[in-house]
Amino acid sequence: MAALHQQGARFAYFNGFLAWDLGSPRSPARRALLEQRREVVASAGNLFVDEFAELGPEAGVSWFNDWSHTSAVGQRRIGALMCAKLTRTGDEHAP
Length: 95
Description:
Distance between the termini: 13 Å
Strand content: 5-15%
Helix content: 40-55%
Order of helices and strands: HEHEHH
Strand order of the largest sheet: 1-2
Number of domains: 1
Largest sheet: 2 strands, parallel
């Protein structure tokens, strides 16, 4: 984050999710890691997006090729989310 700040750059971090997140909540360790990432990114004034919080309710097994790699279906929806978050008019977080 310091290097980005020195360059005057902005940063957007999209925290992904795994197929097993569909069936049960994230483990305490994974939740702690997510919150640590969120704090680092947001405290530097950058955009942090939890993809599962945004898309989890509509996600299904067709979104994945295996436990961690998204299918074309998942990639299309995640890509649309990214575009929406990064192109909103007046978004103070857009890089």
